[in-house]
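Read as chain and fold; for instance:
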Amino acid sequence: MSQQVHSNNTYSPTSIIPNESSKATQQAAQQANNIKPASSRKPIIGVNCDIDGDKPRLINLSAPYIQAVKNAGAIPVILPPMSEEDLTRVLANLDGVLMIGGADYPPDLYGQKNDPKTVVMDEERWRFDILLAKTMVDKTKLPFLGICAGSQALNISRGGSLIQDIPTKLPEQKVAHASKDGWQKGFNKHEVSFSKLTKLKDIYGIDKLSVPTSHHQCVDKVGDDLQIAATADDGMIEAVELKGKRFVVGVQWHPERDFAANQQLFKNFIGAAQEIANSDGKGKERETASVQSRLSAE
């Protein structure tokens, strides 16, 4: 279900007040008059999560993702795997989505056989991730930021493919995309170059940036309606974005691990979410529902 933009943003609490003079009704009306306008509320950002273990299965989410969203001025909420119907309902109450890093997506999603170096993530997670990325782009106008695996999910959902193992493709690596102990063991840093005439180039305002990175896969064939936004010195694609003005961006590096150097990325992402929060009336609808609930309780 697409996000609905309401043309009438005028909120009148009297339109929901019953025709009675009870003290409770008057108090509720006064409370409604004191409600801050929707433009003042923080945007709400959904963040997907990892699924670990068997008995019990655990939801896992690295704290820096959450902290980066908060630092940029938004409220993060965790999105566990759910049905398409439930996701549609949830997205109607969000102002943006951030997709996190993780292990690998099954290569058959993009028409390849499994490489021995590929480490497929939990099935419940990857199925939801692809659904989330596709639904976000096709059925909403919400801003989207994909980090590492989140960027790969965006590309796969648009019909793109991945390089399954960079060291296999480039045995004589000029760029270390992960720590010397492997992509699951820690981070390295290398430079990325921003492509001209892209949102990322405008956001960062520089040609190159040293970024924290930990991955062995990356975008190969770019998905439909996406364009390359950054590359590493070895030619590997480090970022993609949706063509046009809408904020749909995937970065292969981990900006949450160096917020100071990447704060403009998060602020632009949250800024796009703030526009959704301000313009579509959802905040007023939520506040109106709260007043109605108080009236019903009296």
